[in-house]
Amino acid sequence: MVIKNHEYRIKKMNMIEVLALQSQITFKDIASTEALYNAILERCEVNIGEKWLPVKKGNDYFPAGIEDDIETLQALIANFLEYLKSVFQKSDESNKTQSSMTSETQANF
Questions:
Q1: What pLDDT is attached to residue 51?
Q2: In whole angstroms, what is the distance from residue 15 CA to residue 18 CA?
């Protein structure tokens, strides 16, 4: 994904990380939402000088000034949440297919 001449991607994560992040999407209060957004930005990467760097690492942000760029932050967070949604939609579809196949197999016995 390219935003304002910078290329971004979601870093590789295992499914335990994905499940943990998905379980944190509550938007109940500011503190938990801020923690979720920070976790998302730590898992987004930007290509700077042929190197992929985390958008947020500790108190540092890359590229410089992105922490004040609401449009880019919103786009990165929305893209990440859409990624999580797609992972779980695929999982649900797979589970439904497996369940259907299991039911058909059991019916044949």
A1: 96
A2: 5
User: What average pLDDT does the structure give for the chain?
Assistant: 85
In a domain, 95, yes or no: no
Query: What predicted TM-score, i.e. pTM, was given to this entire model?
Result: 0.77
Q: Tell me the C-alpha distance between 106 and 109, whole Å.
A: 5
Number of separate domains in the chain: 1
CA trace torsion 5, 34, 85, 1 (10° rounding): 10
- Residue 8: predicted pLDDT: 98
Domain extent, residue 11, equals: 2-90
| Tens of pLDDT, residues 40-74 | 999 999 999 999 999 999 999 999 999 999 999 99
Burial class (CB in 10 A: 0-12, 13-18, 19+), 87: middle
* Cα–Cα dist 19/44, whole Å: 16
In a domain? residue 109? no
Residue 25 located in a structural domain: yes
> Dihedrals φ, ψ of 10, to 5°?
-95, 130
